[in-house]
Amino acid sequence: MTDSDNIIFDTASRILDDLSTAETINAAEEGVWPEALWQAISESGLTLTWVPEENGGAGASMLDGFAVIKAAGGAAAPIPLAETLFAGWLLTQVNLQVSGEAATVALGELSLSDGKLSGTALGVPYARGAQQIIALVESGGQTQVVQVAAEQCEISAHTNLAGEPSDQVTFKAVPAKQVAVLGNGVNGQSVEAMGALIRCVQSAGALSAALELTIEYSMERVQFGRAIGKFQALQHSIAAFAGEVAAMNAAADAAAEAVANAGGVDHDAWIEIATAKTRLEEAVNNGAAVAHQVHGAMGFTYEHSLHHLTRRLWSWRDEYGSDVVWAKRLGEEVLSWGADQLWPKITAVTDPR
After folding, report:
1. Which is it for the CA torsion 310, 320, 242, 257, positive or negative?
2. How confident is the model at residue 234 (pLDDT cuts 50, 70, 90)?
3. Closest CA to 170 of 181, 158, 187
4. Is the pLDDT of residue 1 over 70?
5. Residue 258 and residue 265: Cα distance in Å, rounded?
């Protein structure tokens, strides 16, 4: 990360360390909105990281925003911070104003007629906690970005494996507050890819935090007169876990840098995202397994923090497309290169200039 990224990351981390506690996360799963945490995040301006100043935002870099998302993932933050950043990014793609209120993005079979949004979207993250919902409408070869007030929508509460809101939202001729058509190469596919990248970055942060917990516990838990982390078998398992964490962070960071360099999700950035999303499944499955093996029954207790991370990882790995979906897409892309271009493409180095 750059110095700017580190400052943003440190600011987010301090707030999250203080306020995204196990008690706060558990209460959020019971339906209690973490007001103190959200207020601190909002007042810091972190929700507007990706929004240019002319659109009402902070005007920070793409990498700054990804640093915030990674910190939120590592803290298992029970707030729609990543979703609000995603919504803000989407609105700025069509040069619309962003308020900084809690927001989320809805994808589904939706239609827009006479300025009113209709249809149903499933699995909308944090819809019930959002003030604004940003919907994507595909029609006539165009992709429209539609902003509506969440209070005017019918929201049916559902949760994912982590206990996070993953709601069904029904739009019954809901009047749009803002509407614009996506252009400049941005479409539904690139928006989905951006969502997939956000989940990869969150997961990289959560995996790193789970590894830290695992190492700490292995040095604290004593069996047969010594810390279990001194046993060679566990050392090998934890080393393998560290390898998964390093691989996932490298893949997520490479994809984030590709998006930052391109100023969006161009074809090269899409390939990096597909690679990261394909890699996520293995990293989560292997990493979470080691973490819980080392912790034993302790890691499954409601009071311990490990399950806050691993249950999110198990949920995030399938959102915005599973590894099977992305592996198929990536495979088709690689096949399209042809034999002569395979090696040059996979060994290409991006010019930092």
Report:
1. negative
2. confident
3. 158
4. no
5. 8
Same domain, 330 and 221: yes
| Burial classification of residue 23, based on how many CB atoms lie within 10 Å of its CB (0-12 exposed, 13-18 middle, 19 or more buried) | exposed
- Find, among 133, 157, 128, 161, the residue nearest to 147 by Cα: 133
Q: Are residues 124 and 230 in the same domain?
A: no
Task: Using CB atoms within 10 Å of the CB of residue 193, give its burial: 0 to 12 exposed, 13 to 18 middle, 19+ buried.
Answer: buried
Which structural domain range is residue 290 located in?
188-346
Residues 228/234, Cβ–Cβ less than 8 Å: yes
Task: Look at the chain and report how many structural domains it folds into.
Answer: 3
Cβ neighbours of residue 166 closer than 8 Å, sequence gap 6 or more? 123, 124, 125, 158, 159, 160, 315
Same domain, 228 and 331: yes
Residue 351 within any structural domain of the chain: no
What is the model's pTM? Answer: 0.93
- Say how many CA atoms lie within 13 Å of 7 toward its Cβ: 7
